[in-house]
Amino acid sequence: MTATPLLELRGIDKSFGPVQVLHDVGLNVYPGEVTALVGDNGAGKSTLVKCISGIYTIDAGTVTFDGKEVAIHSPRDASALGIEVVYQDLALCDNLDIVQNMFLGREKKSGVILDEATMEEMAGETLRSLSVRTVKSLRQLVSSLSGGQRQTVAIAKAVLWNSRVVILDEPTAALGVAQTAQVLELVRRLADNGLGVVLISHNMNDVFAVSDRIAALYLGRMAAQVKASDVTHSQVVELITGGRSGNLGLPPEKPSEFIDITPGEAQ
């Protein structure tokens, strides 16, 4: 694997009014690897992803993509770089088929007419490149698909646009055992195809099944970025819940200074 990150964040701060949500956050995403982004609810995972994808602008810090410092001010900027996000709600339209969903808002046209043949060919090629065999027809309505198949379509939609970094938000949430296994295989294939993959998950079994690296957020700070092979489940849980695990993680908090006023001595 390459030692140079495809996407590198340094010193990222983000506040909403008086509330600072991200504090000096760094993150490295490498091509050909799955980086699991883990953290408890409120740790800042969603805010960080929205900063990467251009929904939020950062207050401070730098973003480097493919070795060059970049400014991401909108989702269009992120897409132009090759950054795509598959959110938990998938953003698929039940009343459209697979091809229509994959090209929604980016339809191919021949003059003023939709180029259905080209779109169908590109959709099929993308699914084949990901070794997807669970979809019977590209013209199936999304409403007829299982949860695992819907997740597959959403991921393929992200990959279709020459993506280089794909961020997956809880891709196995609410899936059964067999469908979870299919989606995790697809996540691994994305990395094996050379993409940088960020997997957001609360499921430690999923994290250790497919991840090369783990980045743990704690209360808006990056507690640690480690190789998955170098840590245990319990260490990652400790990083998530307390920001530290042994020598790993954030420095110990300094005890608060206070003045002990004995009753009767207050002026």
TrEMBL record:
Residues 247-267 are annotated as: Disordered. Keywords: ATP-binding, Nucleotide-binding. CDD domains: ABC_Carb_Monos_I. PROSITE patterns: ABC_TRANSPORTER_2. The keyword Cell membrane does not apply. GO terms for molecular function: ATP binding; ATP hydrolysis activity. Residues 7-244 form the ABC transporter domain. This is Putative ABC transporter ATP-binding protein. It comes from Actinoplanes missouriensis (strain ATCC 14538 / DSM 43046 / CBS 188.64 / JCM 3121 / NBRC 102363 / NCIMB 12654 / NRRL B-3342 / UNCC 431). The lineage of its organism: Bacteria, Bacillati, Actinomycetota, Actinomycetes, Micromonosporales.
